[in-house]
């Protein structure tokens, strides 16, 4: 049971991660759907956000829905919640389950005079506004990828379970007139992997602690059959989007088979010469993920299985370089959505990615004992470095150029990354902006970015991180967990561009989890070396007084505890598992 609580509630606080049952959630009962890690837990609503009737005529005893039950209807159930409809009134109610979850809902009805099924309209929402919306219109609510707005029938003296989406809120409305329906329970059916949170992070700044845990939970929800990018929309294996997710998995869950399963799926779904997901950069991310995966876990047997495809992909990439050492990749030319209409930014980012990809390829070939190919791909990388893209002004591409050593990291940080605060960022490439700031030794600045950008989502009621977040939209916007006042904007429904217009916008996107791995690597200072055999510990507390946490290694959990002294020096305590080499 302790592990279940660690799994479900780790995103709330470090104390919850270590096994305390949080007050806002109460487990009713758990159904193991199979012998795998996938489990289902039934959750009671935490509050009633809205109801269509307060007179007591059409909605009766609503507070009964907030009481923990046993999930079993009975002929003598008393004091149930009642929906009562008339020719003119179809009552509805909006429930809040406290946190974003993946799954559906189980509705149980008691005994009543009519034995005909009760028709109810269900509307799942990642925000209050989405749950209250209609399909289409200017705010663009959809049923794409997963159904979230539909009508069901509830059996007399029975239960039905429906839905498979990402949500926190659920609106239920009676469809037909002249109904009197006693409802015993409306429970969320939460489907997730029952795995422990091995990594941890705690510091003198609770906001950073909450951000670390929220990023971990965001990725955890997306660890479904495969590693998805979103649980409402983008329930797909997007290879580029996986990179921040995999770094978070390395940090929180350690070596997990969902990563290799998803990487292999992409390899097999897109045989060469296809680009993964139709996007050339995503094929490069596949190589970079493999490099990171081997660096952290040292699984040579798995890496060798990728050799044939990887060599073919690297050779294919090498044909997309012109006589000026400039990348000329075809297919979908994409970094992230905010840069998608800026060709100079896309080129700059792709040039940097080509450099990093061939460097990674050379390192992988060395591991595989292919010295000839190591030399070949290292030369390609050096050749690509002879071309420096011009006219880029975006933070995303600038960060990649700094990471690829196409531009000086400190210069990039001063002239581009720190300009305009956290404007013109994206949740996906925010991770690489943080990485470039670390390379420029601007750890205090990076912490400020994390607090302002990812913390800005928490300020709006987020319990998972979003597909995109534009801080310019915050002004005069309401929180996602409240009804939108007439004089306020709906942060979810009124904004968004590209594929995330309005309510189509995913509020649980794994590519947004970057601060989780970044805080562990750079604040706790945990740098994995030698295929997981060694960890170098170089903490950077920035403006923090102290930081501590754990990190999963191939030998067990590494624990560190850092405290800043009055003179600015850092005193560290390290508890390393047997077999793991430590460099300080």
From TrEMBL:
Superkingdom to which the source organism belongs: Bacteria
Biological process per Gene Ontology, one example term: carbohydrate metabolic process
Any Pfam family the entry gives: Bac_rhamnosid6H
Domain (Alpha-L-rhamnosidase six-hairpin glycosidase): residue spans on this chain: 198-523
Matching SUPFAM superfamilies: Six-hairpin glycosidases (SSF48208)
Protein name: Alpha-L-rhamnosidase
InterPro entries: 6-hairpin_glycosidase_sf, 6hp_glycosidase-like_sf, Bac_rhamnosid6H
